[in-house]
Write a structure and sequence with these properties.
The structure holds 2 protein chains of 2 kinds.
Chain A (H helix, E strand, L loop, with lengths): L2 E4 L2 H4 L7 E4 L4 H11 L4 H4 L10 E5 L2 E2 L14 E6 L5
Parallel strand pairs in A: 1-5
Antiparallel strand pairs in A: 1-2, 3-4, 3-5
Chain B lengths: L6 H6 L1 H4 L5 H10 L1 E5 L5 H11 L3 E5 L24 H12 L4 E5 L8 H4 L5 E4 L4 H14 L3 E7 L2 E7 L25 H19 L8 E6 L4 E6 L17
Parallel strand pairs in B: 1-2, 1-4, 2-3, 4-5
Antiparallel strand pairs in B: 5-6, 6-7, 7-8
Helix pairs in contact in B: 4-8
The chains are: A alpha+beta, B alpha/beta.
Chain lengths: 90, 250
């Protein structure tokens, strides 16, 4: 059993239209690295130029915010990571 | 002093007074309430309309913008004849038609760190109907400092998000901050802020009446494309610049 990353719809175009991708890793950060290994174009969407998580991307782990230090959060098989796009319009 | 409802008010609000959690007592609480709505655009339109219809005593609307043709797909407080007018003036006129008993204070200024405290003076709560994050954080910070409930909402495309913040008790908007978000000409269609603004107005009414469970510590995300609501648990961030242990709260 792997860890599932659910992609926000703005990101799916960079993952062949997939809504979710199975990944492996022991932390959220490792899982995101595996995601980007599978779909390299997602790299610039999820991470900023400084290598940190983009300010416009939020990470939720099993329905709860993974922030702060989200990349260091441990994960186990069966966990679900959700990438959410930060909205600011009104 | 508890404001008694007039016979006309009892008739106007009859259907919502029938909601047992509201009743006449709840309606009187709404009549006493003073609410700041920050923004008279896509979110501000349904928020103001439903709060005015519900009989909120005073709505202070703050927006520095004027009505533009490109606003009219979603900002339903305004019409073609209002193009070029200050949004708050247009809003005040429409709300007066809907419910003349509601006092509307229309303030056409940009919200800044310097004027926010005077803008929220005497208000019971603040509703976030802004179109940018920097101003939202000004509101959030003021809400925390003054202990005012803050009702957050935001939209993009057919997607929206809502969260209610009770200072001192629940996570705030800044608790979720992890970097700047670039400003953009965001895509949106009117039905999205209609959904999100209506949820914000619902939360305001619930808070004022003292009924139901508020959307605190829970971020509600609406996906109109899939017609799906999802909820995520949000926790207080001890390092939060606005409400954390080391913040400079007054």
């Amino acid at each position: 059993m792997a860890i599932q990353i659910n992609l926000h719809k703005t990101h799916r175009q960079y993952a062949g239209g997939k809504e979710s991708v199975d990944v492996e890793g022991k932390t959220v950060g490792e899982c995101l690295k595996d995601l980007i290994r599978q779909y390299p174009p997602l790299g610039k969407e999820v991470f900023g130029k400084d290598g940190k998580l983009s300010g416009i991307v939020e990470v939720y782990l099993n329905g709860a915010t993974a922030y702060p230090d989200e990349l260091a959060k441990p994960v186990k098989d069966g966990d679900k990571i959700q990438l959410v796009y930060f909205l600011a319009g009104g | 002093m508890i404001p008694m409802l007039t016979p006309e008010e009892q008739q106007r609000y009859d259907r919502q007074i029938l909601i047992k959690e509201i009743g006449e007592e709840g309606q009187e609480k709404l009549k006493r309430a003073k609410v700041l709505v920050a923004g008279a655009g896509g979110l501000g339109s349904p928020i103001c309309l439903y709060l005015a219809a519900a009989g909120i005593g005073m709505i202070r609307i703050v927006d520095h913008d004027t009505v533009d043709l490109s606003n009219l797909n979603r900002q339903i407080l305004h019409g073609t004849a209002d193009i070029g007018r200050p949004k708050v003036d247009s809003a005040k006129d429409k709300l007066a038609i809907l419910n003349a008993a509601v006092k509307i204070e229309a303030i056409s200024v940009a919200i800044t760190e310097d004027n926010i405290n005077s803008l929220i003076k005497d208000c019971d709560l603040m509703v976030d109907a802004m179109d940018n994050l920097p101003t939202r954080y000004i509101l959030n910070k003021a809400a925390i400092e003054k202990g005012l409930p803050f009702f957050h909402g935001a939209v993009r495309g057919l997607e929206g998000r809502v969260m209610t913040i009770i200072p001192g008790k629940t996570p705030c908007l800044r608790c979720m901050y992890h970097g700047d978000v670039p400003q953009e000409k965001f895509p949106v269609i009117g039905v999205t802020p209609a959904v999100i603004g209506s949820i914000q107005a619902t939360e305001v009414i619930k808070y004022l009446v003292g009924m139901g469970d508020l959307l605190t510590g829970r971020l509600l995300i609406y996906d109109g494309m899939r017609m799906e609501f999802r909820e995520f648990k949000v926790s207080k961030n001890p390092q939060c610049e606005h409400c954390g242990e080391n913040s400079k709260r007054s």
